[in-house]
Design brief:
With 142 residues, the chain is of the alpha+beta class. Helix content is 34%, strand content 16%. It has a domain at 6-103: Double Stranded RNA Binding Domain, CATH 3.30.160. The protein has helices spanning 54-62, 84-103, 116-134; strands at 6-7, 13-14, 19-24, 40-46, 73-78. The model has no long low-confidence stretch (mean pLDDT 83).
Length: 142
């Protein structure tokens, strides 16, 4: 899965040539190899130059995501693991998650009205509760 195409769905595939991955040195603690081995991955995916359909490009560019630059480039830095192979897979999975988030559209909510029976039931319950609370008042002795 190292340099394979990224399969989003059965009909949407991002070719590996459109995904630029560079190995960089990880930040933070890492023991003896921290200054010698480049295990972190810097993934760049240019939305505008990609082979995605125009509607998907527009949706990606409209996303309010800090990983998408003003130029329309998705930038992902993967340094979760101590292995370069695992970080590459992690970066690709994170790109996959971003693209999947715009492909599946949420259904628009159609406003509905409560039924007559549910309105009647609600008002009956309110009346019962009101009677119950009114009986909790002070008892006057005559």
């Amino acid at each position: 899965m190292d340099d394979a195409d990224l399969k989003i769905s059965s009909h949407i595939i991002i070719p590996s040539t459109e995904i630029d991955m560079q190995a960089i040195r990880s930040q933070g603690s890492g023991g003896q190899n921290v200054n010698k081995v480049s295990t972190a991955i810097h993934l760049r995916f240019d939305i505008k130059a990609s082979s995605l359909l125009e509607i998907y490009k527009e949706r990606l560019l409209q996303l309010k995501d800090s990983r998408i630059s003003k130029d329309g480039v998705v930038i992902i830095k993967a340094q979760r693991y101590n292995s370069q192979v695992k970080n590459k897979e992690d970066a690709r999975n994170r790109l996959l998650a971003i693209v999947n988030s715009i492909i599946i559209l949420a259904k628009t909510r159609r406003p509905t009205k409560p039924t007559k029976a549910s309105q009647k039931k609600r008002l009956n319950n309110k009346a019962i509760q009101s009677r119950r609370k009114s009986l909790r008042g002070k008892v006057e002795n005559e």
